[in-house]
Amino acid sequence: MNRFHITGLKQDDFADMVAEKVERALAHYDEAINKPTMVSVGKIAGSIASAVTLLSPKHQRAIDAIHADLPGLASKFVRALAVEAARRSEAGTAGATNPSAGFDGPASPLPRTQSDDLESMLIEDWAGRVAGSTYLEEHLRIARSTLHRWQRRGEVVALRKGGRKHVFPLAQFVDGRPVAGIRDVLSLIGNPRLAWLWLTRPSALLDERIPIDLLRQDQVKEVVEAARVFSAG
Length: 233
Prior knowledge:
The chain is mainly alpha-helical.
């Protein structure tokens, strides 16, 4: 039996108690933090504390054994949490903030099954307008061999769709080529999905400007430096 049941303290009550204490600590040590962020941090801390207490003794001991690595792991968790939050926010406002607005043509020129349609729709919910190699060859005059060469060299963002198929966000192309800086951002951030997500959202490191918009304006150095800071965070 869980010790919270023994003491009469419910799991949710424990999480709320931790959240309240964290909020108070933040209010005391950081007067500049805004209230919504303070509440969110408290909820995250309370939820994690509550979840850890539900782990088996074996897993709790495993966590104890890597306590020196916990700050770094926590930082990765928070970044992943922020990415998921941004994805959900973007999905709720799809169309209003489409980073590739202005591109003509369908995401794919070929008929697709309902399963393919759903998968592509989910990609476009957060990635904006995407297209396959056939569309790029017919409409942007990008040869398949050239596209595959860019992909192998990490010069273009390619998002996996289904098994081995990839689609390419259209906002990264100008005059039939990937904008300068894409290769640098991919080499720094690594994961193409995370890199594209970062490229298409307002960045605090760039005064809330959108990185891909700046790359399309040839402001490469500023974006690459911001990506370097983001990847090291």
